[in-house]
């Protein structure tokens, strides 16, 4: 869906989004079981989820967001919150219904997440239509 069409129905959404990014907002792009791209103001990172026995992906995105918000709200470093988020999404994918497993399982899955800084951050951001100041 076209980003401009989505934002057209929300007065001031573009300005609020730009202000939020200046104030340290984080952005993430998930795509099922594939790597997550995560921008936190310090750089662009790629998080590789652990391999799990896939059962059902319904709700994995919601579980991801819940983990990310939970980690950030309790004061975790953004990359630790990202690990928790990916662990929650992976835990959900192992279950027949939208849910997450016990905390110990989520913790173990989160510990198995591999996070790498993406090189050439400006090139990637320019490809998705954002401006990027040279570092």
Spell out the blueprint of helices and strands.
Blueprint (H helix, E strand, L loop, with lengths): L2 H6 L4 H10 L4 E3 L6 E4 L4 E5 L11 H14 L4 H16 L9 H9 L2 E4 L3 H7 L8
Antiparallel strand pairs: 1-2, 2-3, 3-4
Describe this structure in words.
- The chain contains six helices and four strands.
- It is of the alpha+beta class and 135 residues long.
- The chain has a single domain (3-127), classed as Ribokinase (UDP-N-acetylmuramoyl-L-alanine:D-glutamate ligase).
- A four-stranded antiparallel beta sheet has the order 1-2-3-4, covered by helices on one side.
- Helix 3 (60-73) runs antiparallel to helix 4 (78-93).
- The protein is globular, with a radius of gyration of 16 Å.
Our measurement of the CA-to-CA distance between the termini, rounded to an integer number of angstroms, reads 31 Å
Strand content: 5-15%
SSE order, as H and E? HHEEEHHHEH
How many domain regions? 1
Helicity, in percent?
40-55%
Structural class: alpha+beta
Count the E strands.
4
Write down the CATH class. Answer: Alpha Beta
Shape: globular
CATH topology heading: UDP-N-acetylmuramoyl-L-alanine:D-glutamate ligase
Mean pLDDT rating: 78
Can you tell me the CATH superfamily? Ribokinase
Oligomer: single chain
The description of the largest β-sheet is: 4 strands, antiparallel
Radius of gyration, taken over Cα atoms and rounded to an integer in Å = 16 Å
> Residue ranges: pLDDT <50 for 5 or more in a row?
1-10
Any idea what the CATH architecture is? Answer: 3-Layer(aba) Sandwich
Spatial order of the strands forming the largest sheet? 1-2-3-4
Helix run count: 6
């Amino acid at each position: 869906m076209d980003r401009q069409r989505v934002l057209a129905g929300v007065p001031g959404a573009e300005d609020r989004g730009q202000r939020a990014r200046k104030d340290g907002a984080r952005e993430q792009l998930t795509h099922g079981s594939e790597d997550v791209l995560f921008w936190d103001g310090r750089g662009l990172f790629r998080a590789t989820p652990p391999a799990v026995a896939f059962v059902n992906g319904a709700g994995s995105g919601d579980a991801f967001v819940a983990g990310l918000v939970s980690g950030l709200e309790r004061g975790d470093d953004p990359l630790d919150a990202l690990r928790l988020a990916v662990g929650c999404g992976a835990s959900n994918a192992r279950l027949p219904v939208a849910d997450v497993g016990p905390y110990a399982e989520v913790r173990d899955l989160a510990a198995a997440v591999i996070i790498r800084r993406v090189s050439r951050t400006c090139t990637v951001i320019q490809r998705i239509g954002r401006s990027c100041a040279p570092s």
